[in-house]
Amino acid sequence: MSTQPIIITGPFRQLLSMDNLPLKGSLKDSQLEILEEAGIVYQNGKILEIGLFKDLCTKFSSANTEVQLMDSDLIVLPGFIDPHTHLCWAGSRENDYALRLEGKSYSDIAKSGGGIWDTVTKTRNATDAELKRLLDLRASRQLANGITTCEVKSGYALSLEGEIRLLEIIRTINEEHLVDLIPTCLAAHIKPKDFEGGSSAYLEFLTKNFLPEIKRKSLSNRIDIFVDEGAFGIQEAEKYLAEAKIYGFDLVIHGEQFTSGGVDLAVRMGAKSVDHLEVIDAKAIAQLAASGVVAVALPGASIGLGCQFAPARKLLDAGCCLAIGSDWNPGSAPMGDLLIQTAILGTFEKLTNAEQLSAITFRAAHALNLNDRAILKRGYIADFIGFPGRNYKEILYQQGMLKPTRIWKRGVQKKL
Ligand SMILES: [Zn+2]
Prior knowledge:
Radius of gyration: 21 Å
CATH topology of the largest domain: TIM Barrel
Shape: globular
Bound molecules: zinc ion
Number of helices: 16
CATH superfamily of the largest domain: Metal-dependent hydrolases
Strand content: 15-25%
Structural class: alpha/beta
Distance between the termini: 33 Å
């Protein structure tokens, strides 16, 4: 049927399939499936088989087969998934950061003209070409760090036309770039200062005008809302999410970063994930563990703001599905390096290699409702990354400073 050749790639010193692991709860490194001297066979961007490289070469020897020989020690594992970013913005907020270092609070800075609104102003003023260039650049940096699928939120325009413009830009770069960008509509980031009316009226405006337009243009199937102090309240958020659900959107909540209530809302609304969780308490942890909602920790925001991490150890021990996102954004999480942040959270929260790697592969894919990637097995998308070395534990041991040297995206190989 297909004219594309079958490709056998390897041998890899170690292959971590991330297969046969539970979606929820704590994990031991001994649960990881590790193949030595392994190979991957793929065609048309999909994995056909993994196994011993030698055996695969025998099994798949035919005229339509190409062998891609690795000439150095590599550890291979699924491409990373970043389930939470805000990559589509213009401008910079280094002055906000400096003010925080001087002791000013995030909300004080926002009140005095910095914060999200500052980025909204700069993003609104940027041209399409500039926003595309910036998003493309950030997508390339993600890819270089081993991220093959990256969620991207709108939320820095906060007007009907502006948010649609951002989602269209995300769509364009997704089509042009090797990385898969998963768009999420975050028009409910904060109430824009130039909206006449309160936050409930703004959400009603979005419900009436925005949700049908996003649906009609198929710009995103995910709706996110920032539920916290300085953003939106529980009751108004619930109303908005209920409407979004009727339209068939997947729901996501920024919750429990500064104040509680977001988890209860996420569980009641059947959200795909609740992201942040820095202030989650024992009761909410138990509630989340009993639900199908993914807990997304965002250590980059804790590092950027100098505040506590989400209690990842407790979340896993209680039986939650834990994913980790970079939250890369110009305000609270400017670093934008998922692996470094994962390793830092891992060392403070005592997370095993298996737990950290699961949180940025198949568990992160689950947060995005994607079940076709982030595990190396037959039928899955051929997205995988190779790190130099002989032992997979080196990856997190170097706390994110060891970078992948080869990346395969839907089978397209890129040397770095
Ligand atoms: Zn965020």
